Structures are given as structure tokens and as C-alpha cells.
Amino acid sequence: MDIDKAKAALKTAAEITEKNRHAFEGGFPAPASEKGVYPKIENDDWTAGFYTGLMWMFYEHTGRDLFRETAEGHLISFRDRLDRRVAVDHHDMGFIYGLSCEAAYKLTGNHLAKETALLAADNLKGRFQEKGNFFQAWGQIGDRSEYRLIIDCLLNLPLLYWAAEVTGDPSYRELAEKHFSTTRGTVIRENFSTCHTYYFDPQTGAPLRGATKQGYSDTSTWSRGQAWAVYGLMLNYIYLKDLSVIPQWKGVTDYFIAHLPGDFAAYWDFHFHDGPEPRDSSASAIAVCGILEAYRQGVCGKEYLEKAYAILESLIDNYAAKAEEGGILKHSTYGRLLGEGIDEFTLWGDYFYTEALMRIVYPEWKTYW
Ligand code: GLY
Fold first, then answer.
1. Residue 18 counted as domain residue
2. Which of 16, 63, 281, 329 lies 20 to 30 Å (CA to CA) from residue 346?
């Protein structure tokens, strides 16, 4: 990997974020841009934490107070959101509160931030379903039509491992482990492709069927879901050190790599291999983070590392925005069939691409997960 190239890419990403930040004062960027420009929204979506997380990474990278002050300025809004229960009745507490408040506590010792992140962990705990042993992702608790887990939730579990560590209360970790085990046993198919969501019987807890929400079909493989597995399995491995995760991780990672097109930027669903369907560059950025973490954990060889480097170099060369643009990583897709954020910037695409660069430029860097 060309470190100078990664450093230059990180510099451009920081410049973009610094230049655009005035547009979001008193609010946050929307999950996805519209024609290359992020609309400004309230702190009411699952993606707000990525923006604050970007600020924390650029603060660590540049040492400049403007990034720290912007991130710290968000903290009161995250607390207010929980207190007023604004769009918090879902599972995405790790994405929202891990990268904002937990990160603030880890970097600065901010006690309000710690307390807020713990409240978010409690909120996630409240979505645990004993019948089925999983965190219900969306909807009213117990609603039959939403009695399911989703693969993305693997990345919300680190908030619970952290909560168990700082409080000494093992229940956070116990529930996370149960959900992790249920997820591994359902959404990963025999050939190591994945399905997005999995339904359970609310009466008996029996696993019922896989289904997609953002993918092409119930039997296809949504590329970002596969990437959530690549990174999510490894993030859970960090805390659990369960060796049985490793072959599963290799399986889902090999599947992801084998289904990439020539320039390594995933199509939005692996049903597509070529042609004009949009890419989801964010899926590739997420998977790079997962592979770099696996190498750091000593559970994969150099051949995986080389692949992560190749994917990241292609993202830098072909998908990174220029300093004057409205976001960091181009050609990401939120929900193709839902008509949301198609071939746009996405906040998580920007976040995971930047996280991958931070991992390369600072090999000892501690992530916020
Ligand atoms: N976690 C929601 C998504 O990946 O779009």
C-alpha cells in the first residue's frame, strides 16, 4: 500500500469536511447526498453518529480544535435525542452513540458522553427478544411483521461490550453474545453469502425465514449486508475471541472478494456483475475495515491484507471526491429499489473510507468500536 497516497487521501477528506461543515451547523448531513450535496437534517436518523465520528477522526489526524469543538458541540444533541426519544426506537444505537458519545468518552473522558452512551446501550438492551434470542431491529417491540433481526446489527453490539466493561454489568455482554450467536446461525447461508434480515416466530422463537429489505431479492446477496458481516464478525471477535468465528469470517470475506467487479467497488447487490447498475462503494470501504481488523487480530494472512490494499487503492484512485466536492466517497448507494441515495455520497461511505485510511496511516490507531 502506498502510504503517501493514503495520507494525501486523508488530507483531502479532512479538507472536504472542514470546508462543508458550516452547511450543517445546528444539524447533521442527511444519510445520503442529493446530486452530490448533503441536505441538512435534524439529529433524527441512524447515520448522525458517522458525522461526529468523522470529526473525531479528523481531530485525531490533524490535532485541530475545530474538529474537536464540532464533535463536542454535537454531544448535547445526542443526549437530547435520547431524552426526547426522537427516532431511537430501533437497534442502531451503536452506529449513533458509539461513534459519537462513546468515542468522546474514550478520547476526552467526557462524563456526559459516557452517561449518554450507556443510556443508549440500555435502550438497545430493551429491544432484546427472549423468544428467538435477538435484538429486534425495527418497529414496535413484538410486532409480528417486524419480528426479525438484521445483519447490520453486528456493528451495534460493540456498544454493549463496552458498556459491560465500563459498568461491570455482564448483562450487556450476555445479550450481545446471544444476539451474535443467533445472527451467525441464521443470516449466513451455507455458501457464505448472507441474507439481510431473518424472521422468527414471536410465540416460539423458532427461526422462520430470511428476507431482504434493501437488497435485490430474498435470495440474492445485498453487498452492503455482506460487508456488514465481514466487518461485524471481526468486531465481535475482538471482544469474544471465539475461534469458531474465523472460518465463518473467511467464508463471508472470500464470498465478498470473489463477487467484486474489476475495480473492486461492489455493485449494490451481488446479483449484478457488470453493466449500468449502480455501485455501492461504501460496501467495499466497510469490507476493507473488516479485513484490516482481521489482519490486526492475526486471524488472516497477507493475501487478505494485499486484497484490502488493492480495494482501498482503487477507491482512492477512482471513487474519492476532490476537495471542492460535497462529500468524501462517491458512488455509494443507500437503497436502490427503495429509490434512496442512488449513486451518491453516503455518510457511512465517507466514514468507513476515512476509517480505512486512518488504519493505514496510523497502524496503532484505536478505533471507536
Ligand atoms: N444500516 C442500514 C444500511 O446499511 O443501509
1. yes
2. 63
What's the grid cell of residue 237? 471477535
| Burial category of 103 from C-beta neighbours within 10 Å (exposed 0-12, middle 13-18, buried 19 and up) | buried
Question: 206-251, pLDDT tens digit by residue?
Answer: 999 999 999 999 999 999 999 999 999 999 999 999 999 999 999 9
> Residue-wise over 43-71: b if at least 16 C-beta within 10 A, else e?
bebbbbbbbbbbbbbbbbbbeeeebbebb
- What pLDDT is attached to residue 326? 98
Q: 98 with 56: CB under 8 angstroms?
A: no
* Closest ligand 1 atom to Cα of 214: 5
* 274 catalytically annotated: no
* CB of 214 shorter than 6 A to ligand 1: yes
Q: Count of domains in the chain? A: 1
Q: What is the percentage of the chain residues whose pLDDT exceeds 70?
A: 100
Cβ of residue 152 lying under 6 Å from some atom of ligand 1: yes
Domain containing 219 equals 3-361
Report whether 230 contacts 155 (CB < 8 A).
no
pTM above 0.85, yes or no: yes
H helical segments located in 134-195: 157-167, 171-186
CATH at 79:
1.50.10.10
State pLDDT tens for residues 127-163.
Answer: 999 999 999 999 999 999 999 999 999 999 999 999 9
Ligand 1 proximity of 177 Cβ (cutoff 6 Å)? no
